Amino acid sequence: MASSTSTDSRRLYLQIAERLRTVMYQPGFTTQGRLPPERALAEQLGVSRPSIREALVALELEGRVEIRMGSGVYLTRMAAPEVHETAAPADEMGNSLTDIMGARVVFEGAIAALVAPLAKPRDLKALRAIYQTMEQQCQAGHSPAAADRDFHMRIARMAGNEVLVQTVARLYDERQDPISAKLLDHYEPEDSWLTALQEHRDILEAIEARDAIQAQAAMQRHLKRSLRRTMTRKQLS
User: Fold this and answer.
1) Which end of the chain has fewer CB within 10 Å, C or N?
2) pTM for the structure as a whole
3) Helix axes 12-23, 49-61, angle to 10 degrees
4) Residues 6+ apart with CB under 8 A from 209
């Protein structure tokens, strides 16, 4: 017998955004147009602060709120009760950054463990050269984003499995989807790349040592910390 209970299959942050659309128009919910802090919203809705952060960014992409770093989240002129029913198409937003990074932890951690014991000298030389490019760009005050992608893709290619390469490329490039790009633009710390540089060095040295356990641990640690830096950065005064 089929269950009568329906399951909302939408991404979690979209479900939370829908709940916020309902409550944020209620009288007294905002103070001079300013929404309650993330922590209060998370407690009120019974969800995590990262999920609230993603939902608020989704609402900003819809034009319903404005996130002002160091000040708060404010309703926009568009955020009127008579227009609150319409939401942006879900497919235009992209996957949750939390989900993307969680998947990368699994895939890239396993790949690092796979390739480390059998790493060829030419691959190690190429990987170190990419790391050195990242280092030089950081020292010059430039973003090493392209070299960072090369670093992760080089490790994936060392596995010799095109499906894994395509999977890593797709997950990495989802950083450019609207929801992830806006989150990173707002919340990624300015010194994030300098911090990440040492994490890449740990990955490199573990692979150079052909240590599968340490390579996996270093990769997973880097990806988890990268997400944490974005999702825990305080932005409200």
Assistant:
1) N
2) 0.87
3) 70
4) 116
